[in-house]
Amino acid sequence: MFDLIVIGAGPGGYVAAIRAAQLGLKVACVEGRGSLGGTCLNVGCIPSKALLTSSGKYAELSHLAAHGVVVEGASLDLGAMMARKDKVVGDLTKGIAFLFKKNGVELIEGWATIPAAGQVKVGDTIHQTKNILIATGSEPTPLPGVEIDEADVLSSTGALALDAVPEQLVVIGAGVIGLELGQVWARLGAKVTVIEYLDRILPGIDGEIAKLAQRALSKRGLKFQLGRAVKAVEAGGNSLSLTVERVGKDTVDTIEADKVLVAIGRRPVTRGLGLEALGVAVNERGFIAVDNSFQSSVPGIYAIGDCVPGPMLAHKAEEDGVACVEGLAGLKGHVDYDKVPGVVYTDPEVASVGATEEALKEAGIDYISGKFAFMANSRARSTGETDGAVKVLASPDGVLLGAHICGAHGGDLIAELVLAMAKGATLTDVAASCHAHPSMAEAVKEACLDALGRAIHA
Ligand SMILES: Cc1cc2nc3c(=O)[nH]c(=O)nc-3n(C[C@H](O)[C@H](O)[C@H](O)COP(=O)(O)OP(=O)(O)OC[C@H]3O[C@@H](n4cnc5c(N)ncnc54)[C@H](O)[C@@H]3O)c2cc1C
Q1: Is 314 known to sit in a ligand binding site?
Q2: Which of 2, 356, 397, 448 is 20 to 30 A from 277 via CA?
Q3: Which of 53, 119, 125, 136 to mutate to test the pocket of ligand 1 (most atoms within 8 A of CB)?
Q4: Residues 80-105 pLDDT 10s
Q5: Active-site residue numbers?
């Protein structure tokens, strides 16, 4: 009899299993895909960041002349780039198997179903357990009328494993995944067009920062068609033909491409577990409904990560997992969803935490704001990474409510503001702490000073 069986070894599930074992529970983790780490390590965060880094190095070569570095005869070895990505993924997924052993988590390989509360079935074996934690994650959302074959019409998984650089790549969806993978292939030589239904990129990100990102990405070769809906993708000769409708108008355009990436979002994976028969409630979008302790509508069955409501991010899944099992072990676990950072690893990076300006306006909340452009930051000037800005939002008495960054290293810079918000810090707390010079972090301090009406370098 186990204390806990976790279904799914993604960042939510494997972290929960390890933490539960550390807390003295007898734990097993079931994984069906034949490799640990879930979407994140296998076909998500890690391979995409490996390719972003490799393609970034290639793209950098064409800018080195401005630094007085002349590179001749550079060429692309896509096979080597993909092999490196696969090795990074392989090493990390094997690392989880090691951590399971070290912490005494039993790995059960295979696809799980839940015949009844307290039972997890894998193959012909039914395992008994006091508690079940569903961490089955998510999968790409399909676009009606567009069939993904992973050869020409791709999901993010196919776009991480192409064996040649497409000439014309159309990305459907200007969200995080579409922009990151779009930039990978643009840097390697593809002509990339991003088609988005909304009239803006990066829905959910502060509008002003998203505009800065769009401008910077356009400068780096991405083309955007906003306010457009892809209605069909058809194969014709050597290329694909996309039927694209202008939203709210009668106009229909046709666009040719040799590859299409469908990146319109992700949906929870809950099919086939037997949830309906068990009476586990899901919401209208298929996410498992849970209470504050991550318990579903059926006692003893818990759920975390991408298959429950909230931001679909690896670190959020991990936080969920730890909070859930700490609760099971009698500790107090809690996740503050208002302070979960999100990062888009494009060049420039886009990072954010807390409320956007649009959300504050809509909620009728009084706020003050400050902004500082990297163009005025001396470190950015010396590296040549001057695109973008830091923006902070705070209550009239200075308590930070949100922070948004478009710029190089934004994903690292946001950590200071996440901590500040977690501790209820004010603009003055951040601005009064000494920031190294010259550093990109000085832009964070200056944005806070700007909100206080006393920026030095703006
Ligand atoms: C291209 C891409 C890039 C991304 N980049 C980032 C990023 O930079 N940062 C970030 O925070 N997030 C990123 N994400 C999102 C991140 O991958 C997810 O938020 C995260 O993986 C969710 O973790 P999870 O544990 O909830 O689920 P998952 O990682 O999806 O893991 C679920 C696991 O459960 C297994 N499973 C499902 N059903 C069963 C069953 N019945 N039996 C046994 N096993 C089962 C699956 O095989 C899978 O391994 C990215 C996603 C994609 C697709």
Answers
A1: yes
A2: 2
A3: 136
A4: 999 999 999 999 999 999 999 999 99
A5: 437
Fold adopted by 153-264? FAD/NAD(P)-binding domain (3.50.50)
pLDDT in tens, 389-432: 999 999 999 999 999 999 999 999 999 999 999 999 999 999 99
Q: Is domain 341-451 annotated with CATH 1.10.238.10?
A: no
User: Within 13 Å and on the Cβ side, how many CA atoms surround 377?
Assistant: 29
The CATH number of the structural domain formed by 2-140+267-335 is 3.50.50.60
**Where does the chain hold its CATH 3.50.50.60 domain(s)?**
2-140+267-335, 153-264
Ligand 1 atom nearest residue 112's Cα: 42
Span from the CA of 138 to the centroid of ligand 1 (angstroms): 6
